[in-house]
Design brief:
The structure is a homodimer. Chain A has about 650 residues and is of the alpha/beta class. Chain A contains 21 helices and 19 strands.
Chain lengths: ~650, ~650
């Protein structure tokens, strides 16, 4: 029997003896742990007045076995890189995760009763406000992807002996993201990844598709290449045996399919529909339930844990070491382009990414079978061990990037801008987690041409601006593209870089700098009648329009708003102040939510006039130049609009 | 041998004899058809200078067999409800779809050579600009869901004898959306759905995960409950036999897994990596390829097709009949609430949806295992045959809604607002298609409380505003909720309705009307110092703030902007003009892309000052009232902001 003396408030000293699960008495501590987890789940949700206790009750035996039989971790050190990791994909069962951590000594038991309070890091669904949670869950079907990322790191990058455990609900297995993760996990032979499905047969609003048919899950995961074990999820011996079996499986991940009962342990809750997301009422109802879960005097907190397999250096601060943002810009080799040379910003991205990979071994790249278009292929060629082909499965690509980020890697994730919409929920959850990921979306706008609207990113700026604390960058040439990629490498949280398909002229000197939150005034005079603000492909259209207007005696200011968020509010207001308080924003993006709205938002309280030129209808296939013109964002259309404003008397000529 | 005399330019007369495929000579017309499809694909993409001919070549024999052996349709009548349907999920193979339609007499052969031209309805990826395409494809992994929707209609609603054929690429099978569709298709026993996977082993940038291993696909679809048939995708007899077998399969869908070669038919293209998305060059390269595809004098267009099984009435215009928007508002029973009664707008949605279902038999509902929260459960209770439980699989839910919409059904799709981000790519593609769907997202904002950020819709307005031509509605009480749901029923294209979790007081009379694009001025005086614009939960906060301010001698105008898009620009500008050109927008949404930006966009060129109160950080669990206050959008915070502006001298007291 394993006994650990740990005290969360002092340095931990851990002793371990071999644990054998074949004898009944060995299971008693685990069964006790499960009972305590049930009690905590019921009490804490009753105290909070909300939560999902029945979803916790079905998982209690599984979680107890994972935490107190299988997992190797140091309860005093969440950031120990050798820790096994646990992801609660069925995030609504958060109370049981918190209970397990408390019983393991990782947080004080009293804290459990602050569940869902505004001041508590024990939120309704797990978030990294709690240091044991690397990435937030709660939007179902994402945890397995996060686990894939952690497992990729453990097997191929940091080469750890640790395991990654993911507990899923059965209802969430309907999510396609789970099957993307399943396929990738088998393809990459992630034998350090162990999934467990809590098959309690009940979803939120009705019974699940397969109800209690554990075979349905088993045959599907087996077909996807996983080792599978079917068990009674309330039989502690079977659970431990399955977890032990999983340790020895090579070359494939393991899925333990556990038949359970929602509400298990309390007779009036067991397998009853209508109890999802309902806490028991404090007082009579709660006490009635607790009577069925007696502790029989074993009231002392049970603190058991197994040590990590390789004791790594104790982190100096809980999560700071592996996640620290490393300065890289200083070592970044300058771009080396000729002025006027035509280079696509997507190509410059590839070049810059290779440079970053050389500077920092933590930089990794993922792409969704578009690497020859996004130019992530350059990174694959230069740093093959750090490139993970993610195939046509963007949700899992983002989820895996989240997992890698929690392990201290610096992921750059690329696909067509349009296809990031496939992963918006994962991007949203990554934003909630605050993990550091750079998303690079190519083929933005109508300027991609003949492939047509399905391939055009026209809403990506709106999407990425709406991620809290995101940075959104949109370079117009190869120099700024490389510089912004280098800048992005040092940013925390969500960063999005928008790249274009067509080759555009280099307009900046190689030594030019591009501070995040800045902009570049490219054309200026004391007689500018208004300011044209653009980025990417339309910046070049604006420069062409400038020449045409100048030849007609009309001067405009031109600003490259390469930093869409944060936007250079000060610079823009200054320009507005000097150009009749009139701005014209031109973007290869839909009308709502993009650069135009970003500019509007920046000048919102200053009474500035903003004219937006953007794509106002669903575009169609055509030549790039044709489309820019038809959709109102070409040089010719900019000239037309400026002249129209002048003709209407909206602004004076100078 | 089946012979059909059809002439696309005159009334079609169709004769059919039984087709047996066991004799070799029967296959000759099909092999000829396949060859012509190859020739067209190579020629049209060479002419266009772009496209994916090798992806067409691998599919040519499959497409020929589907169109000229299996499918029953009237080439002169795209809208015949009895037609079999074909969805090209691997949308980049569009040229071969067009070629098949041309050879079937559904469009002139010469048109094929307008591929990808701006003026042509034959776009780079299929869109409904071509009447034979019900829903756009091109973002991979969505076609099977669309097929699920069509099949649900055929089997359960219109009870047709027709089939739905979906051609998938192998790379796209990595998309989770395919597995959501697969699970649902088997669950709903869609034996009228036949999928075909073109397993050519080559993705865009490298070989696929399973390469040419057809068994990998076969075991996975079999595990998901499909009938599976593995064939050589270039053996016409096997293809036809598989298609024939699929006709007779009952109670489960069929997946035909076809081993093919990318570029099949041209020796220098066959199974070569690096040819994805590359057209041949006109001239020598093209001619070299065409030499390998001789027609041997069989130059006449081959026009074969089988008739629909039940001849329905010829539609009066190509797609107008089944998709016509039926007026419903006139028959909609008025809401019946008491002023002051507390009702959640999500509950009112459920009530309104039931009413619509009673009025119009084409109204259908889908929900992702949240029906007890979104109140779609009311529709399930009232109209069970028209409710489709979609389980926790939002991508497929939206794709299936698209399929249903193409069959003339009026889908209302609901889940938590936050979880619609899971389906943004499908929503995006539905927007490109212009199909008519209403999305109803509940549990918006921080006002949901303790469940925390993973469950809060805080970017949904940004997302849905960015869908071209969308309508975005945000009722604040039960009366406006019901009225707006009724109004939505008559709208074309994408409509989004945002509902809230908490019960809020009814503030409108039951007979009040809410025109789309309108707003309601709820508090007004000649001395208003500014205008507060809000919607949903914050509208009530604004009304409370109004009272507090009034008690302090400060008057503000209050507007309910229930129509976020189109927004009542005229009404807002009028109010601004009367209230010192100063607006304060308060929303339970992130700062970027929501109601504030919608207002800003409306007043953009008028120099109006707009102060935005919105959520500026990732929220956390807490009580709803607590969160509204902490995140700056409560009545108290509105009052604080107004007073602050007055104190700063930004605006006069009256």
């Amino acid at each position: 029997m394993a006994l650990f003396s740990t005290d969360a408030n002092s340095k931990s000293r851990i002793e371990e003896e071999e644990l054998s699960v074949t004898s009944v008495q060995d299971l008693a501590p685990l069964q006790l742990a499960a009972r305590k987890l049930r009690i905590h789940s019921l009490r804490s949700t009753a105290e909070a007045g909300s939560g999902h206790p029945t979803s916790c009750l079905s998982a209690a035996d599984l979680v107890a076995a994972v935490f107190f039989h299988a997992m190797r971790f140091d309860p005093a050190d969440p950031a120990n890189p050798c820790n096994d990791r646990f992801i609660l994909s069925k995030g609504h069962a958060a109370p049981i995760l918190y209970a397990a951590l408390a019983e393991a000594g990782a947080l004080p038991v009293e804290k459990l009763y602050t569940l869902r309070k505004f001041t508590s890091e024990l939120e309704g669904h797990p978030t990294p406000r709690l240091s044991w949670v690397g990435a937030a869950t709660g939007s179902l079907g994402q945890g397995l992807s996060i686990g894939v990322g952690m497992a990729l790191n453990g097997k191929y990058l940091d080469k750890l002996d640790s395991r990654v455990y993911v507990l899923l609900g059965d209802g969430e297995v309907a999510e396609g993201g789970v099957w993307e993760a399943a396929a990738i996990a088998a393809h990459y032979r992630l034998d350090n990844l162990i999934g467990i499905i809590d098959v309690n047969g009940l979803g939120q609003s009705q019974r699940t598709m397969y109800d209690g048919d554990v075979t349905a899950y088993q045959v599907r995961f087996a077909a996807f290449g996983w080792h599978t074990v079917v068990i009674d999820g309330h039989n502690m011996q079977q659970i431990c045996a399955a977890l032990d079996e999983a340790q020895g499986v090579k070359e494939r991940p393991t899925m333990i399919v556990a038949r359970t009962l929602k509400g298990k342990g309390v007779s009036f809750l067991e397998d009853r529909d209508g109890w999802h997301g309902k806490p028991l009422k404090k007082g009579e109802e709660l006490e009635k339930a607790l009577k069925e879960l007696p502790l029989n005097g074993a009231g002392e907190p049970l603190r058991v844990a197994r040590p990590p397999l390789r004791t790594g250096p104790r982190s100096t601060s809980p999560v700071a070491v592996t996640l620290a943002v490393t300065p890289m810009a200083a070592d970044f080799p300058a771009p080396s382009y000729q002025l006027g040379e035509k280079v696509a910003t997507r190509a410059a991205y590839g070049t810059a990414l290779v440079k970053l990979g050389t500077i920092n071994p933590r930089v990794v790249a993922l792409d969704g079978d578009t690497k020859n278009s996004t130019f992530a292929e350059k990174f694959l060629a230069a740093h093959p061990q750090r490139y993970f082909e993610s195939y046509i499965a963007e949700q899992n690509m983002v989820g895996a990037a989240v997992g890698l980020a929690t392990c201290g890697k610096i992921p750059f994730v690329s696909t067509f801008a349009a296809f990031f919409t496939r992963a918006f929920d994962h991007i949203r959850m990554a934003g909630i987690s605050g993990v550091t990921i750079k998303y690079v979306g190519s083929h933005c706008g109508v300027s991609i041409g003949e492939d047509g609207p399905s391939q055009m990113g026209l809403e990506d700026l709106a999407m990425m601006r709406a991620v809290p604390h995101s940075t959104v960058l949109y370079p117009c040439d190869a120099v700024s593209a490389e510089r912004l990629v280098a800048a992005a490498a040092e940013l925390k949280g969500t960063t999005y870089i928008r790249t274009s398909r067509p080759a555009t002229p280099v307009i900046y000197h190689n030594i030019e700098e591009f501070p995040v939150g800045g902009s570049k005034v490219l054309r200026t005079s004391p007689r500018d009648c208004l300011t044209v603000i653009a980025a990417g492909v339309t910046l070049h259209e604006a420069l062409t329009a400038y020449e045409t207007l100048r030849a007609a005696g009309i001067l405009v200011r031109v600003i490259d708003a390469y930093s869409v968020k944060p936007i250079d509010a000060e610079g823009i207001l200054h320009a507005a102040g000097q150009t009749h308080n009139t701005l014209m924003v031109v973007e290869d993006h839909y009308y709502d939510g993009g650069l135009g709205d970003a500019v509007l938002s920046a000048v919102a309280t200053y009474g500035v006039r903003v004219y937006k030129l953007a794509v106002t209808e669903v575009p169609r296939s055509g030549k790039p130049e044709e489309l820019l013109d038809v959709y109102g964002i070409s040089a010719r259309r900019i000239v037309e609009q400026v002249k129209s404003l002048l003709a209407q008397g909206v602004l004076p000529l100078s």
